[in-house]
Design a protein that fits this description.
Largest sheet: none
Number of helices: 2
Strand content: under 5%
Radius of gyration: 20 Å
Oligomer: single chain
Structural class: mainly alpha
Shape: elongated
Number of strands: 0
């Protein structure tokens, strides 16, 4: 078994490509497409420890300037 690291955006893009391939080829590839898409989707639902490409930051609060 080989492991491949993918970002969240890459997983989403791969699922979209699988969806397009299944739509283009019909029922013949639907079963394989569903299996692969479910495996990929499961990783989107799990919280990823420290592997996120993004950090959550608090918005900066700026006090309005009072003009005289």
């Amino acid at each position: 078994m080989e492991n491949v690291e993918l970002s969240t955006d890459e997983i989403k893009a791969l699922i979209q490509l699988i969806d397009l391939a299944v739509k283009a080829s019909g029922l013949g590839s639907a079963e394989a497409g569903v299996v692969l898409a479910k495996k990929l989707s499961a990783h989107l639902e799990q919280p990823q420890e420290g592997s996120s490409d993004f950090k959550l930051v608090e918005p900066e609060v700026v006090e309005p300037e009072v003009l005289d």
